[in-house]
Amino acid sequence: MTDPLAQIDRALVLLVRKATDPRGNRRINELAGADIERAGAAMLVRVSESEPARLSELARAAGVDISTASRQVAALVDAGFVRRRDDPTDRRAHLHELTDDGRALRERLGDARRRWIADMVAGLSDEERRVLGALLERVTEPMAGI
């Protein structure tokens, strides 16, 4: 009999590995008609979830140091996906928010990820997909605050 925890461990490790692998990122970029690094795509999501946000908030949300967040956000600003403006409450700080192009890219990347997932679960019935989604939400919910 297979140990359920070992089975879950193997499946989650493979899923995370494939989802973060450069080939997986290339596939999502192909599906989205985009060309953005995985870290940039992740930061794009952080900006959209927190906007308008200071760099320190984005670094904390992404779990990276401020210098890493600064480089990632600067690349998104240079590409026209994020707008930087002065923080009206502190003239030394800046707020970051998505541009219309950034919102469109985030939407295309989200659609592409869902198509990628649809390919992975194509062999499951609608009911099995519903149960899988519900179980994954239940398992990952406690992680949301980490």
Beta-strand level of the residues, as a percent range? 5-15%
Overall mean confidence score, pLDDT: 91
Gyration radius (Cα, Å) is 18 Å
**What is the global morphology?**
elongated
As residue ranges, the low-confidence spans are none
What is the succession of H and E elements? HHHHHEEHH
Structural category: mainly alpha
The count of DSSP E runs of length 2 or more, i.e. the number of strands, is 2
Strand order of the largest sheet: 1-2
Helix content: 55-70%
Report the sheet with the most strands, covering strand number, pairing sense and barrel closure: 2 strands, antiparallel
Kindly report the oligomeric state of this protein: single chain
Explain what the structure shows:
This protein is mostly helical. Helix content is 67%, strand content 10%. The chain contains seven helices and two strands, in the order H-H-H-H-H-E-E-H-H. The protein has helices at residues 4-20, 22-32, 38-50, 55-62, 66-78, 100-120, 126-140; strands at residues 82-87, 90-98. Strands 1-2 form a two-stranded antiparallel ribbon. Strand 1 and strand 2 (90-98) form a beta hairpin. Helix 4 packs across helix 5 (66-78).
Secondary structure layout:
Elements: H1 4-20, H2 22-32, H3 38-50, H4 55-62, H5 66-78, E1 82-87, E2 90-98, H6 100-120, H7 126-140
Antiparallel strand pairs: 1-2
Helix pairs in contact: 2-6, 3-4, 3-5, 3-6, 4-5
